Amino acid sequence: MSEKLRKKLPRNQASPSTVRGILGEEAEHHTRAENVALRRRSMRLLGSLLHPVRWQVAEVAAATLIGTAAKVAVPALVGLGVDAGFHALDTGQWARFAFIAAAALVSALLAGLLEGHAKAVTPKFAQALVLELRRRLFAHSQRLSIAFHEKYTSGRLISRQTSDVEAIREFVAGGISQFVSSLLFLGMTVVALMLLDVPSGLILLAGLVPTGLFAFWFVTQSRNRFRKVRVASSRMIGSFVESMVGIRAVQAFRAEGARTGEFRDRADEYRDTNADVFFVFAVANTFIVALAGIVSAVLMFYDGSRVLAGTLPVGVLLSAVLYARQFFDPVTEIMMFVNQLQGATTALEKISGVLEEEPTLADPEVPVTLDGARGHIEVDGVTFSYTDGTPVLPRIDLNIPAGQVVALVGETGAGKTTLVKLIARTVDPQQGAVRIDGTDLRDVTDADLRRTIVSVTQDSYLFSGTVADNIALGRPGASRTDIEAAAINVGADGFIRALPEGYDTDVRSRGGRLSAGQRQLVSFARAFLADPQVLILDEATSSLDLPSERLVQRGLQTLLKGRTAIIIAHRLSTVSIAHRVLVMADGRIVEDGDPEVLVAEATGHFASLHGQWETSLRG
User: Fold this and answer.
1) Which three-class secondary structure state does DSSP give residue 592?
2) Nearest-CA neighbor of 227 among 36, 28, 34?
3) Nearest CA-CA partner of 38 in 19, 55, 57
4) CA nearest to 13, candidates 266, 232, 297, 311
5) pTM, rounded to two decimals
6) Which pLDDT belongs to residue 35?
């Protein structure tokens, strides 16, 4: 029994608690209203997942019901067979004994076959359910806004997709059917023994009283412990993921010791909380074994005395002992179900929370299409503040004609990135509107907007796969000719063909096989292939070395030709290709004009920045 307990203890407990809202803080307690809301939300999700496999569930339920009845019948038939055998020895009439023996054999075979059938079918629909859940979670996570991903750490999303989904699979695959089977077995066993002998049945039934009291203690004690385990596991996974994602910074600053110490603390916390869970299960195991022994001893003493007195057949005593020995195994299974239920319930809460989160930038009910967009950008009376209420853009008015290349310059914190976020609609303004060709961005679908406006950032993320695959992200389904043409236009073809397998070279995880400048060129080729009307370059040339920068200038001329472009520029060479320069300070546009004209105004902000750039180049 202890081995059974050990095997069914949770392997992965990575499911952090979310209390307030979907992105709320991890905590260990909910208000009653929050608990009710979480349960309803979780049950809606579970119901939607079970509905497509409802007939398989019904099949397993029928097999479980009939198989449990057959299993319960075996001890009674064994006892009756023993009494029939003694009677046949006296009378020589073996027909009744043969019939009961055959019935016992058929019942045992039927119980085994149906139990095996249920165990074969359940994993199939459990896997189908899990596959659907993984697909939903992955697809929905990609639909959610950038703001969601900035708040919801990657470690937590990994927990949702891995250990939480696995907890639900284990619950559906074995927990529910085992729980139902155990309850049926308990009830049917009591009824069967009552039919054989009422006093024996009452003794067995009396054993349920301390069992019920202990079960209440067990559930109370395990609930909070399981929640602590999941919080601790989530923290441990988060620490690991954070260190691995930032491994270059960790090694560059020799922070291995500090990160190892933090991970050790998280792992120790996880170990200690798991130890608390094992303690509760150890107590449970001891209690069940002791109670089963006590009930069996009472039945042996009481029914044995009645057999000696001639008031109880030997077969009934044998059946009673067999039932007593089996009776408390389902209690153990029910406690295992409590274990799985705790994990599955928490996992359902967290996953349903993610699935019910809506994008902060919702699509309009009646969208306006951008077919034939020219790229005329208007920023009309826009104000923007982050969640702490600090104004980032007090008020911005800006008009960018179609086809104009605009360079945004200014010191760090001036509001440049926030402005391009508004133009790309990764955030919405609190007041005012951002329009493209006269259409408010909030009236355009996200898919339509992403086809029209493309951003290239300083951190050009490349996925595992070939160079060609990464360029093709700009336009899925593009031909190899179009992919190579895009690379040629931005000046990336030369270095790509010099790679070991050319365009078919695997760039490895996060593009680690390429230099920063090469990754940026690939991202330019991707943007060229996407062919947007508006292009945003957010410090996109800052990671290029001088040879790569000179190479990319020609590519940028081609990339920007005929397009509206907004470039956050920290380099003089980038500003030189702009038709217009906007200088920002404290969330406002303080200078706006032709770069040559602004340089000529020796006292202006841009002239000062221009002078600093030239000095740095000479240095």
Assistant:
1) strand
2) 28
3) 19
4) 232
5) 0.63
6) 66
